[in-house]
Design a protein that fits this description.
With about 110 residues, the protein is an alpha+beta fold. The protein has two domains: about 50 residues, no CATH class; about 55 residues, 2-Layer Sandwich (Alpha-Beta Plaits). The chain is about 35% helix and about 25% strand.
């Protein structure tokens, strides 16, 4: 047997225990559910597959909105200028690039997508 320091041999069980704990915690994090997460279920070949999806909501913080209308000009599908503030007119297609551009262009950071 090679000359191995006994202190290193004592560390081997500790390393194994830590690795097992990390694997256990990692698996639990993957399978844990969030209150904002809903589950869509689709059936394929008599097997049920659950796919978690994040429920998103588009909103405008009225106190931050400057009424510049950039969001409505960039993304008329989701926004319109109503008086001196913008309003959300659609909650569909929240992954569109136009919406992302409108959010990034808002000078008051008034648009939230959460």
């Amino acid at each position: 047997m090679p000359n191995i320091n006994k202190a290193y041999l004592a560390l081997i069980p500790a390393v194994i225990v830590v690795a097992a704990l990390l694997m256990f915690i990692g698996n639990n994090l993957k399978t844990s559910t969030n209150s904002a997460v809903t589950t869509n279920t689709s059936t394929t070949n008599n097997d049920q597959i659950s796919i978690p999806t994040q429920a998103k909501t588009l909103a405008i913080i009225g106190s931050r909105c400057r009424g510049c209308g950039r969001c409505a000009m960039i993304d008329s599908e989701h926004f319109e200028l109503s008086g001196r503030t913008a309003t959300v007119i659609s909650q569909s297609n929240l992954d569109s690039s136009s919406l992302t551009n409108a959010i990034n262009a808002c000078p008051g950071n008034a648009i939230t997508l959460s």
